[in-house]
## 1
Amino acid sequence: MKKTFLLLFITLLMLGCKKSELESVNSSPAVAAYDVEAPPPPKEVQQMAPPKAISEKLLPDEDQSSQSPVAPKKIDTISKKIIKNGNMKIQVGDIKKAQTQVGEILKKNDAYIQNEQFQNTDMDDNLELIIRVPHKNFDALVNSFSDGVGSVLSKNISSNDVTEEYTNVSIKLANKKIYLEKYRDMLKNASTTKDMIEIQETIRELEDEIDIAEGRLRFIDDRVKYSTLKLSLYKEKVRSSSTSKIGFGSRLADSVTEGWNSFVSFLLGIISFWPFLLIIPVIIFLWRKWKAGRTKN
């Protein structure tokens, strides 16, 4: 009887072990998926090697780098601001001819006349020109006047570096614009009338300061872009025998005229003292009367 129970127990134990092994095999999805459904990995994936470092992914390909040049780095700086001015005085033989030559030189150098003034005297003719010329053509213009127009009597050229002033004004202008936007936002959220009035007054002052700064920058840009040259064309008049006042007769007549004018001026000066002339006889009369009374005593 005991042998029968022992044999039955061993049989059941063996059946249970086999069942557990079958369940463990069937319950493994990785093995089943790999053996049944999952295909082997493609050859391209097997042959692809991982990058050595992350920076290698960011490096451009050799073909792309050779085709697309690297963009230059933008430098946030203000270029040099140089204002050039000049003064020239040239003696010429004929004003009209010299004026024609000046017009051709101006046209060649893209310059223009801003102001023109002509004076005709007994001694000379003088044509004053204020010329505006592009900065790059200033030196060529001055050289052209020096070489082909006439004899240069005087020349003065000056350069003024206003880069620092331009930079300071630009920085202050940018800051004022930032503050202006902030005050405009504050105006939208203002809750009282007093705050609105104060903010509007501040905005008005900022707008005026911005207009002044922008005007100053425009003025500097104009003076930098176009240089200014003051040109004087001078022609001394040649005296003829009919118009000359240097001869003896002319000098004698001028001397007589000048002497007569001096005499008239002297006479008029004496007449201007007529109140004092009236006082003198009175003083003389009183002095004689006083002297006569003293003699009697």
## 2
Amino acid sequence: MTVQPIPFPQTSAQVHFDRHELGAILGLYGRFVAAGEWRDYGISALRDVAVFAVFQRTAERPLYRIEKRPKLRAKRQQYAVIAQDGQVLRRGDDLRTVLRVLERKLIRAIE
């Protein structure tokens, strides 16, 4: 008599930021916190997208969303920085390059 494995429902794979991506994002986040510009963040891992949302106050809408969409890798638009109003500030294949749009805002905030 052979034992049949019990079929488990397939869980949908979620998109996540890896350790290097989170390191780059949290490094930028820490600099903005030190400058007094940002105060909170939230991370969402969904089926098609991973989102790092940045808040000035916890109860508000996010100031910026940093999104990772692996399905857009072929178009070289895997990462995006999106403003509060929904405007895409920068899109690209290299996360550090995409995050530079926010680093420019940090330089203005410190001056």
## 3
Amino acid sequence: MKILVTGAAGFIGFHVCKSLLSHGHEVLGLDNINNYYDTSLKYARLGMLGVAEANASIFNKLSSSSNSHGFRFVRLDLSDKESLLALFQDEQFDVVCNLAAQAGVRYSLENPSAYIDSNIVGFLNILEGCRHNNVKHLVYASSSSVYGLNKKVPFETSDSVDHPISLYAASKKSNELMAHTYSHLYGFKTTGLRFFTVYGPWGRPDMAMFLFTKAILNNQPINVFNRGKMERDFTYIDDITEGVVRIVEDNYTKQYDSKPLYKVYNIGNNNSVKLIDFIEAIEQKLQVKAQKNMMGMQPGDVERTWANVDPLIKDYGYSPNTTIQEGVDAFIDWYREFYNV
């Protein structure tokens, strides 16, 4: 298939591109390479995808680069409607995997307009591109943040998600509603994936795994929010990638046409891990005791997340099987090699 992956220079997008290429698909990666975090990491990911001399100097607006392995890259912002729709018309994608978004709960308190431009306007442009160019299936990133103040665990997609507590969460719930509308009106499949705390090699520098590892190795204290009384459904990147790719490739299966036009799934580890236990796994690998700066609850945060992924197991054979210690070890091995620590 010819597949568009947005957010290709991002953490999950990079891994999804890599997997799809290994399966023989033609992949066009799109990213605006914004400066939400260190862009050198984004360029390094593109380099791993075979984009020659991946650095800021060669990527101007709408410039592209390709290699012999079926991967092409275009630098483009989803809010640029005219250029995005032209790309859809020129390429005629079979499937679109929209992983581009302005991420981060806490950052949405500082720069709310970035979330509207990318997550609302940008997503609408993606839907319009699919609608007008016969895209068979749109797979898109939602977030566990949509569950907001829900107390019942594990979280199920049948739960009410009418109480988001961050603009990021509200933007992701909006994406689900927009996708439902377009599936209903225009008859193409949309599948939303509520990601639960993804971590692993090539991860984002603003995520806990990265922040904790960096601080401990530099003999600096780590900020432990809610005094460590947090629980997260930490999910290793390889498990996430395997699930995403199964859904993207679903067009090949006999069951594809019998599945509903619109569906939302949780995609997580099917388990809730205490933050303190997660920190202990890092300490175990580094053989260093962390200096903990115990802090209160942060605005927009929730105390606990836990995904019920039974529907994804039933429909796609999804099977997260990476233990926390295995995942933490793999991330730290990558971190030490990449940063020469």
